[in-house]
Amino acid sequence: MNQSKEKDLTKGEVPHILKKLTIPMILGILGLVIFNLVDTYFVGKLGTLQIAALTYTFPVVLVINSINLGLGIGAAAVISKAVGENNREKVIRLSTDSISLGIVVAIILAVVGEFTIKPLFTALGADEQVMVYIVQYMRVWYAGVPFVVIPMIGNNAIRALGDTKTPSIVMLVAAIVNTIMDPLLIFGLGPFPELGVQGAAIATVIARFITFAVSLYVLIIREKVIVVKVIKIKEMLHSWKDILFIGLPNAIARAVRPLGAGVITRIISGFGNVYVAAFGIGTRIEYFSLAVVSALVAVIPVFVGQNFGGKRIDRIKEAIQVSKKFVIYYSIAAYIMLFLIARPLATLFSKEAVVIENVVLYIRVVPLAYGFQGILMIINGALNAIRKPIKAALLNIIQMLGVYVPLAYFLSKPFGMVGIFISLVISYVILGTISIGIFNKEINTL
User: Fold this and answer.
1) Amino acid 21: pLDDT
2) Region 159-164: what's the mean pLDDT?
3) 68 close to 148: Cβ distance less than 8 angstroms
4) Is-contact 162 154, C-beta < 8 A?
5) In whole angstroms, what is the distance from residue 372 CA to residue 370 CA?
6) Confidence band (pLDDT; 50, 70, 90) for 270?
7) Which residues of 94-103 are buried (b: 16+ CB within 10 A; e: fewer)?
């Protein structure tokens, strides 16, 4: 396979390449964050019940996105390794089969999701008042699941080819479309009907369709790595096996995170809907605050995957060292900034005193762990790229279900919300530290 200099990540200065890959990704990550923040902002204008409803949907949406992202990571890992091996035929086969896998998964998720809305959200603690808005939102969202699944896998495939610019620009444009459509459909501005929470879901589906169309165009027309051909079942199943070897543990581990968040939401629901709303706002602000770190995390599997395929273990080690240092410095700066602007930031999303106070509390406690959280995320990506998905998955599962959830359950009783937030900090400190030792051991055996 003839690689351009831009796409070949096995040569050149490691810090420069990581910077070159990460900067475009920041736009893409910001696009994803803007999706959540814009929905939160405009739905928040409707009232506390509506923002609480959106908070209840968040863990479920994240579970589905986590499954998709897990498959995308699996696709990116095997495709980037094939790129590093200069095997064009293998790149085409894996790219094509990853999309066919995405189509199957999208159909299953849409059908199952549509029939489980009420029992699932009742189990999460939603009452009848909130359930009305949840149903309005999720029925539309599930109908648009194919526009979420396929581009998430497709964009990972594009990044695996060394192109982080195109997916980022597309995600940012989609976020802008969502930002424009949200107020029009939520509040019924101009000729548009007033649809409330349902309008937010429709705006999201419209924006996601853009990413769906563009990712397929890039892979089929520009890169020509997806080809329509007679399906060879044996080859396709072999590709699916390779993708799922990395993607399935990742999907499970990443799905565990929002499932854990669902349990945390259930615990918080015992305090009242205003506390659920505050938690939802706090988590969305966190996604925005970690956008730069998330961008770096997104490019690590691509860089490590290509260098793993090219047998450049020295470059992998250097990349992880550079990334860890950056994350530590960034987390310190982010904490100071968030501590100072916590209150005005909280008032952007709500005017209720209880909500504001708990958002401020979240912003001033949870970011203490950003450095450890970033390291855990980076090492997870690297472990997947060197084909150690089980260990990567276990780190995530233990952080969420082994430490955070049980600790939050016990500390919430005497300390309330602050006990839940402190539990999250402790879980990241413990698992972030452990992840460093695990990665060092694995990379030294290669």
Assistant:
1) 84
2) 82
3) yes
4) no
5) 6
6) confident
7) bbbbbbebbe
Q: Which two tokens stand for residue 102?
A: 């995405």
Give the alpha-carbon dihedral of 63, 64, 70, 73, to 10 degrees: -130
**Residue 33 pLDDT greater than 80, yes or no:** no
Outline where 229-369 has alpha helix (H): 233-269, 273-289, 291-309, 313-347, 353-365
Written as six digits, the tokens of 217 are: 């165009």
Neighbouring residues of 82: CB distance < 8 A, sequence distance ≥ 6:
90, 91, 94, 309
pLDDT of res. 317: 94
Structure tokens given for 28? 């893409």
Using CA atoms, how far residue 139 sits from 66, 134, 201, 439, in Å, is: 19, 8, 9, 42
Question: Domain coordinates of the chain in residue numbers?
Answer: 14-445
Burial class for 239, CB neighbours closer than 10 Å (0-12, 13-18, 19+) = buried
CB 106 within 8 A of CB 153: no
Tell me the pLDDT band of 230, cut-offs 50, 70 and 90: low
Structure tokens at 296: 């770096």
pTM: 0.74
In order, the DSSP letters of 311-336 are T-HHHHHHHHHHHHHHHHHHHHHHHH
Query: What band does 434 get if pLDDT is binned at 50, 70 and 90?
Result: very high
Asked if residues 357 and 317 have their Cβ atoms less than 8 Å apart, the reply is: no
Six token digits for residue 293: 């770190």
Residue with tokens 């916590």: 342
Joined tokens for residue 404: 């955070």
Distance CA 384, CA 78 (A): 10
Task: Taking residues 418-440, report their average pLDDT.
Answer: 95
Number of CB atoms found within 10 A of residue 425's CB: 19
Please answer whether residues 7 and 225 qualify as being in contact, where contact means their C-beta atoms are separated by less than 8 angstroms: no
Distance of alpha carbon 280 from alpha carbon 276, whole angstroms: 6
